[in-house]
Amino acid sequence: MIELLYRKIFLLLVLILFSIGLMVPMIIIRKKGKDPHGTHEGYSILARLSSATIFIWIINILLFIFFYNLIELFWLFTFLSADIFIIIGMISITAGFIFEILGIQALGINFRIDLPKEETELIISGIYKLMRNPIAFGLYLIIIGTFLLIPNVLTLIITIANIVVFHVKVRDEEKFLLARFGKSYEEYQKKVGRYFPFVIK
């Protein structure tokens, strides 16, 4: 059986890499004279909760790493404690990071945490040829992988909350992009799926 310590070390690395992967692009964009945060305007109330749900996800991981006895208080899905599920969780998180990196790299200077205040380019190259929202898709994989490493009721609730909130955020972003880029984005939507290479009608 995979030791608890290894799961803790892996999740600590996840938090470190997640922080670096977010901070480095923001620093680069700020040096270029742009605002990497963007604006909440244009988002629905639910979509604005994305920062809060990610913060709760981080807190949950920190509780698991440093206060495991507290985490034990929540109902565990013991059947998910098998090594195979832990390995799938690690693979899911690793794949999620790959999608996140490819998405942020393709966006380059156009990357924003929220909606851009200024004019930006419509990026349809790189990973964006395969899916319209690789960063969100990568985040889903990371969040689901976390649940497989911390399989309890609390993590399940946090997982569902993050997926729902970020899906709403994605839909709001697509409305924004459609309004900003018009026909160009509409054609792109017809060719490339939201999370997959094919379009789901």
Offer a concise description of the structure:
With 201 residues, the protein is mainly α. The protein has helices at residues 4-31, 50-66, 68-71, 83-107, 134-149, 153-181, 183-191. It has a domain at 4-39 and 92-191: Four Helix Bundle (Hemerythrin (Met), subunit A) (Up-down Bundle), CATH 1.20.120.
Description:
The chain contains 7 helices and no strands. The chain has 201 residues and is mainly α. It has a domain at 4-39 and 92-191: Four Helix Bundle (Hemerythrin (Met), subunit A) (Up-down Bundle). The mean pLDDT is 92.
Number of DSSP-assigned strands: 0
How helical, in percent, are the residues? 55-70%
Radius of gyration: 18 Å
* Percent strand: under 5%
CATH topology of the domain at 4-39 and 92-191: Four Helix Bundle (Hemerythrin (Met), subunit A)
Structural class: mainly alpha
Give the SSE order as H and E letters: HHHHHHH
What distance lies between the first and last C-alpha atoms, to the nearest angstrom?
43 Å
Largest sheet: none
Features:
201 residues; mainly alpha; Four Helix Bundle (Hemerythrin (Met), subunit A)
